[in-house]
Amino acid sequence: MREGKATKPTMSKSYSVAVAGATGAVGVEMIKMLEQRNFPLQSLKLLASSRSTGKKMTFRGEELTVEEMTEASFKGVDIALFSAGASISRQFRQAVTDAGCVMIDNSSAFRMEDDVPLVVPEVNPEDVKWHKGVIANPNCSTIIMLVPVAPLHRAFGLKRLVASTYQAASGAGAKGMDELLRQTRDVLDGKPAEPHAFVDPIAFNVFPHIDVFQPNGYTKEEMKMVNETRKMLHTDAIRVSCTCVRVPVQRAHSEALNLEFEKPVTPEQAREVLAAAPGVIVVDDPANNRYPMPIDASGHGEVLVGRIRQDISQPGQTGLDMFVAGDQLLKGAAYNAVQIAELL
Amino acid sequence: MREGKATKPTMSKSYSVAVAGATGAVGVEMIKMLEQRNFPLQSLKLLASSRSTGKKMTFRGEELTVEEMTEASFKGVDIALFSAGASISRQFRQAVTDAGCVMIDNSSAFRMEDDVPLVVPEVNPEDVKWHKGVIANPNCSTIIMLVPVAPLHRAFGLKRLVASTYQAASGAGAKGMDELLRQTRDVLDGKPAEPHAFVDPIAFNVFPHIDVFQPNGYTKEEMKMVNETRKMLHTDAIRVSCTCVRVPVQRAHSEALNLEFEKPVTPEQAREVLAAAPGVIVVDDPANNRYPMPIDASGHGEVLVGRIRQDISQPGQTGLDMFVAGDQLLKGAAYNAVQIAELL
User: How many helices (H) and strands (E) does chain A have?
Assistant: First the structure.
């Protein structure tokens, strides 16, 4: 077996896949997902920057060696899962599509481009069909929000959404998760919290600053939730506002959602719709202290939904409040990307 | 000097004060506040349960001994600051008022009673006047929300408010703060997170459960924010919904607020009103990474307000989004109680 490739007995149809950014927090989860979901692989190529070249990683019990990503890397590759940052995605787009390879990109580079579908398989699988070589994975907080919100929108017509997020350190990758642990240890030892991966201290703190500020006062992360929601639900009529906040949690994002619908909807009706929705687990039994929490969502591909209640600030049962939690690295990134590959 | 009392040269007018629950997280801060604000004291009595009797505490450089609280404790006392839980407040109310002493109560015991004013000095100082022996300190998250929201309401007419909170461990007192530190150490050491003060793990986690669940699906904490807001702003027309969430932060609460007004209001107008409002510090310079954070609010009596922006989900400049942070033990409890005592 060649370095950097794992082969598998050919199934009815199997694919050559490359993971670009294989050693990053999301890349590692992408590889795990391909393994766990028994993705029909003809070969697997692990690509990263020269810094990580030669690193060994295990896949289906075999040791694979990470190769340096170059424009030549994509020859003979069917699907490339990219999670190496927006600039790397931009740099390699042409080489990937020229090689006849489909790029499934986890970065924000192409998400809002008209000829790039933005896909959550539970929300808009049909959009995969019109891709022209690139399919974008939405922003993690948008994915985690839309998996439960899309089925409610289809049933009751979403008019307006106010979201407040509780986002994990993993949103800044492995360095964010490492920083949370290191800084927390330092603070417990009486040392100052030194921020590197984040602008502000993350240990025992929260801050309303994820991605860069826009002229309208929202952050880019907040505007992603607005714009990506509209693109995936195929309507500009849905009004969205949100506040994105980083919290000292390792790898699952939570969100408090306030929803306003065209049609009346009771919490019972919402629970019924959500219980039948793909990718959603209803965890909503407050009497027994059961509601979504990031520690319970971690390691799972599904989004947990609970605290579903009639919004008492809205007339006529048109409003709902709820709380959701989902694994940022899995459903928010790696799992969604592999699901898109499966759709192909 | 007698045990448990500190005397001071008589000023124009001075008061005998008792702190009930002196050894609790809020009680300790109440004593610090009386010291820092040079409250005109004739004497200070530190009261607690028999468990803490005999404990020594320092006030203005003198050592005071904690006394066991009995019905006889309030004879000759002018003002009793209570922070020993709702059941203790209920138990001693009669004894306190029979002694001609005014009870300023930090618990939720009497807040919604018609003949008990609920007061934030920056919001509704005039309500102190009609007290009948008891004045209630509002819930911490309500105080931190209303200090900035009340002046905006007066200027632009608040119609609806959606709040999502990021509440610190101190909301469960010293035992909550201790639990956060202990549990965080345990998790970092690879041990399981054992919850005692909270139902759920607080280390590296968040949970949407503060106080008990109500039949409408909201928690009691969330309904306090709804009902106390209406009582203090003297109107039932303001519609409020909120989701209260505990986060692994030591002692300052943060809140993401989405506000809808009768009159149009720009972020600039809101900043002007807030800059002139008592008890508020506008921290709103995203270009230089300046916004409210709990670590910056800790130890301060003022509420920090920032991320002020026009809500893009509302038409015609009638909506604002903002983020606030305030010290739960100070403005959320001890400082507000001492401010009420000063009003008297």
Answer: 8, 14
